[in-house]
Amino acid sequence: MDTTDKYIGRLLDNRYEILEKIGTGGMAVVYKARCHRLNRLVAVKILKEELAEDADFRRRFHTESQAVAMLSHPNIVAVYDVSKTAGIDYIVMELIEGITLKQYINRKGLLGWKESLHFAMQIAKAVSHAHSKGIIHRDIKPHNIMILKDGSIKVADFGIARLVATANTLTQESLGSVHYISPEQAKGGHVDARTDIYSLGVVMYEMLTSHLPFVGDSAVSVAIQHISSIPLMPRDINPEIPLGLEDITMHAMEPKLAARYATADELLLDLEEFRKNPAITFEYALPAMDISEPGITKPVPSPAEIANAELPKNAARPAAKSQKKGGILGFGAKNQAPERPPSHAASSPSRAPVRTGGGRANYRDNRKKASATSVMIAALGGLVAIVLAVLFMWNYILKDMFSPPVEYIEIPDFIGEVYNDIRQNADFSFIISEDSNFSEVYEAGKIYDQNPRGGTRATPGDGKIVITVFVSKGKRPMPSMPNLVGQDYRAAQNAINDINNDNPELNLKLEVALVPVVSDSITKDLVISTIPEFGESLSPNTTVTITYSEGPEIVTVRVPDLSGYTLSAAKLELQSRDLVVGNVEYIDSDEPRDTVVFNTQVGEEVPERTAINLQVSNGPPETPTPEPPEEETPPPTDLPSDPDTPTPPDISVDGPRDPDTVDALPAV
After folding, report:
1. Edge to edge, what strands does the sheet with 79-85 contain?
2. Containing domain of residue 520, as a range?
3. What is the pLDDT of residues 3-60, one digit of tens each?
4. Which of 107, 106, 101, 113 has its CA nearest to residue 415?
5. Are 289 and 170 within one domain?
């Protein structure tokens, strides 16, 4: 485990635990992770930090990813979730256990045409489904195509190429993708569904020949060839390719948009017709190219780059401008389609048109119009003819005179034979390939592929000729019902969906019916039983019934109106109805103290043991006792002034006058 990676061990959104790093792309880093909610392994693609800093890019990242998440097809890697947490933008995808088609081609080399057809049809189905949802891949290449252990394929990264295209130019970093881009992509023009069809054609070309149609020292030089060169015909590299399959491949790689397959469904239709009848042909001829395609607005390579770029000499014949307006013809006869037998297909002209403008007659006409250069070319051509004649005479006449004859054995075609019937052949030593697999076509024990192919000549030497054979294991057995009892019913439902996704070639289409039942003994949401039962074989279109617990039966009680009850009486009433006293709040009220003023959920049907909240009176407020008023002392009576009357003594009183003192005054 890479402990230096800051994401290893992190838990995103409290759900996805990052376990290990499994890949890096131009836009994101891919990690293996565990989803703790559904207890399954997933792939988490985390957007690189330098791209995450661009708010507009992040917005389009989420928009594109959410659109792709709507795709649901057995040949497309599923997108489960798109999220952002703590500044980390990421996509959660299906974790694929397998290798890329590029790795498979590198390991095996040349693929048989039957195997190539098998892969091409699955890729075309994935592309067709995405196009029906308005999503164009823009980067179909073997690196984005995964091969599972059962031989099925899944296409990854739908919708992501549009984002990468905004950040990259045709540099050495994009060399892996530029081998598969369409001419309109190389010119910076409008891109539609036909772009994916061209790229699929290049993938088919590589599977059938183990060569890329165009190679170069830089991305720019390869892009120029897609625009202005004609590739070798696949049968020039591998003559064992059926004519019809070559027609389909080159029709998909048609440089002119108007002449290419218009839809993936058209391509699929031809592939299906060829699968039913491998002898069929489609009358496809390589056309003259016209780089003045309408709708091209922004060429990516500059004129200086085009002028200075070196084109490879071993992969394609560069196209030269015809003297006829708008035409480009390739050098040499191999640029033209080989002679075809009469077509066995009742194809419509729109799907399998006979191409014109690139035929040999046109090429000869243009050659006749050459002036001084034609003399030199003729001389060189004569010299080449002499050399070829000498080589021919040496290989087929003179060589046998000076060397002993070599014995050749033509390898029979063992496909369809029972392995046990042919393994004792005295001339051959057979090895059963480890890649042998199930087959819906060939019975168990029969050979469905071989290497070398039948019809190939080989020299026995001092021993037997070794042939690797692929022996069928018979039809793939139907999966059995897993043990789901005791699991959460949602996880059980996902397990059935996983069986559908893990066996796309069986087309099971299993459905799930959920049946909740009351149970006092089984925990809520856990599965009680299933139909079919554990271990039984699952058949296509079966409805799996999952019965799960919804917990004990719920008894409801109507809540009474307790207004006017004393608190103690209200408690007794609630207990008698299997209800519980909740929060008791005292409030000011004119009701006597401890009288219930209000209770919650009056008249409602609630489950037993529900808590009912009460509001209880504090009692009426107390009336205050009035205080007696203070008595005022009457003022003293004024006496008449008499000079003969003695003045009473001055008595100072600081409070109410004492009546005894007043009474002690002498009377007048």
Report:
1. 11-12, 16-24, 28-35, 40-47, 88-94, 79-85
2. 489-549
3. 578 889 889 988 999 999 988 876 788 999 999 888 889 999 998 888 877 777 777 7
4. 113
5. yes
Over residues 186-243, the pLDDT tens digits come to 888 788 899 999 999 999 999 999 999 998 888 888 888 888 888 899 999 999 999 9
C-alpha distances (whole Å) from 71 to each of 65, 123, 208, 528, 639 are 10, 14, 29, 33, 122
What per-residue confidence (pLDDT) applies to 249? 95
- Residue 395, classed as helix, strand or coil, is helix
Catalytic annotation, pick one of 2, 5, 81, 139: 139
What does each C-alpha distance from 160 to 99, 103, 351, 521, 612 come to in angstroms?
20, 21, 30, 50, 56
- Rounded to 10 deg, the angle between the 193-209 and 113-132 helix axes is 170
Two structure tokens written together for 298: 């922004």
DSSP structure class, residue 480: B
Mapped onto helix, strand or coil, the DSSP state of residue 152 is coil
Q: What contacts 395, CB < 8 A, 6 or more positions away?
A: none
Please tell me whether residues 161 and 24 are part of one structural domain: no
Q: What average pLDDT does the structure give for the chain?
A: 77
CB contact burial 426-463 (16+ within 10 A = b; e otherwise): eebebeeeeebbbbeebeeebbbbbbebeebeeeeeee
The answer on 340 and 286 residing in a single domain is yes
Pair 458, 579 in one domain: no
- How many domains is the chain partitioned into structurally? 5
Active site residue 644: no
- Say if residues 145 and 199 touch (Cβ distance below 8 Å): no
| 500 phi and psi angles, rounded to 5 deg | -60, -45
Place of tokens 């392994």: 41
Q: Which residue has the tokens 């996902």?
A: 494
